[in-house]
Amino acid sequence: MFLLFGEKYHANQVATGQFECPICLSETHYTHHRVQPKFTLFGIGIAKLEITSDYVICHQCNSCYDPQIIATPSEQHIAIDKAALIRTLCYILSGYGDTGQSRTRLIQLYKQVTNIDITNQDISTELAVINSGKAPTLPFLKQVALRLSPKAKQDIIVACYQFASGSCLMEHQDRVRINTIASSLDISLPEVEYLINHNA
Fold first, then answer.
1. Which of 37, 40, 118, 143 might form a disulfide with 7, Cβ 3.0–4.6 angstroms?
2. Which domains are seen in the chain, by residue range?
3. CA-CA distances (angstroms) from residue 172 to 9, 61, 168, 177?
4. Which residues of the chain, if any, have pLDDT below 50?
């Protein structure tokens, strides 16, 4: 006798409504999504596993937020996908050397992905956090991965690849860095390969 077991991912739309989006600066519609895999035996879900995604997404700007934004809208909430994107791009920048040309490219790429302008001061602030060693990038990404939509994770990987490949000739260590970022975001290596081949 043999057993067929595995995981099946189940995405739920937990809630919908309106909220004050910090990016849009207006009341917009949101959807609260949660993804929870189930352990399966012969294709039948028999046990719920740990939640892998739990986020609120704005319908207007597609920003991802911690679901707490609905319960406590008066508190300062950041768009987690935007914070993760600037952190990963600055992480890559720190490995190539901080030059004016690289910063200009980072600013343009961030604008292209998010439609939001950032400044050299934003980059300097993020680099200071990275270089201080007090908030390592990869643990930060592991921590926020739960609050990111699959599309936000994919956008981060594609942007990292575009930034790295535009900064220099892609070498082995560049791909290792991108693969490590992807692993921190719970993205598989075959998915990274697909994203790079179809979006770069």
1. 37
2. 5-71 (no CATH), 80-199 (1.10.3680)
3. 32, 35, 12, 9
4. none
